[in-house]
Amino acid sequence: MKNEKMKWSILPIVLIMMCLSGVAQKYNNGVSVEIVQKTDTTSIGQQFVLPNLQNMEVTMAKVTIQPGKSTGWHKHNFAVFAYVAKGHLTVNFENGKTLQFSENSSIAEVVNTYHNGTNNGNEDAVLYVYYFGEKGKPLSIRNEQTVGN
After folding, report:
1. Cα–Cα distances in Å, from 109 out to 1, 22, 70, 85, 124?
2. Which of 82, 81, 18 shows the shortest CA–CA distance to 50?
3. What are the residues facing 129 on neighbouring strands?
4. 114: in domain
5. pLDDT tens for each residue of 92-112
6. Given CB 3.0 to 4.6 Å as the disulfide criterion, which of 61, 73, 126, 135 pairs with 57?
7. Tell me, what CATH number does 117's domain have?
8. Judging by beta carbons within 10 Å of its beta carbon (0-12, 13-18, 19+), is residue 73 exposed, middle or buried?
């Protein structure tokens, strides 16, 4: 029964994605659609599993990280995607792995894994972040203890 509920809860998302995939053909000349990222795994290879949320809520946020600053160690319990519009971002993971993301790159963020994003550049890092979460739940969970390097 749980799998059946999961299938039905995912159905609206699948239908929307199918509709959006055909959008490019419907625009007039002078309008283009460029796929920024298409993936079935996070940035460290985790398979995406959409949670069975009762009150799903999608949040889009503009996140600006000043030079030398970081997000702090945190994790997400659901799918999060980010686009680096400006600057560079270094992401450290609790397993010691580090990834670099430059301007105009996209990130399929990790799920249930503590990570810390740091701007080691000389200008603000600006990200547009999409959180596929649940109403009334936090977008991220902070880890106040020292994690990783």
Report:
1. 29, 26, 16, 16, 20
2. 81
3. 61, 82
4. yes
5. 999 999 999 999 999 999 999
6. 135
7. 2.60.120.10
8. buried
